[in-house]
Amino acid sequence: MGRGIGIGLMYGLWKPRVLGAWRVPASGPVILAVNHSHNIDGPMLMGTAPRPVHFLIKKEAFVGPLDPFLRGIGQLKVDRTTVDRAAITHALGVLEEGGALGIFPEGTRGEGDFASLRAGLAYFAVRGGAPIVPVAVLGSTERRGRLISALPPLRSRVDVVFGDAFEAGDGSGRRTRKALDEATVRIQARLTAHLDEARRFTGR
Known about the structure:
Blueprint: H1 2-13, E1 15-19, E2 30-34, H2 41-48, E3 53-58, H3 66-72, E4 76-78, H4 85-96, E5 100-103, H5 120-128, E6 132-138, E7 157-162, H6 177-202
Parallel strand pairs: 1-7, 2-5, 2-6, 3-4, 3-5
Antiparallel strand pairs: 6-7
Helix pairs in contact: 1-2, 5-6
């Protein structure tokens, strides 16, 4: 249901161009690590990914009628001000059931350049035994023609570029703080390299 809504909204309001979707494993647990510079990045991925995606979304979005709606389409509420153990459990549950978990590794919307990653992505990848697929969502950076500054101009092209899946761990199975910090460094290098390649390929 969530994917259907995402498809309708994203293709109705913008012009998505999807590249490399075949790189997403057809089954089994997977994490889609997405850069975050527009408010539509999550819905855009829900509407263009080849599999249903369960996103970790800030609790502030779960207000009024959006609360039951977001829960109903399988999205996960997370409190970013603390260690939200309930959100962690639900996210690991998605992976344990062989689902696709969507994460904004930067934690919040910004430049969308993967410059500052949190350790949560490494934790889920190592603990959940899931490969990471980097995803670059590239929309217009011009403010001209925007109704809302955090959105690309309506009917403009938005490129969604999927990269090659990779493992975050070093093969040792370690989950120590040092191991997760090292995994975060490796992840950031892979995500940044994918974003650079996506920008060169699309001309964004």
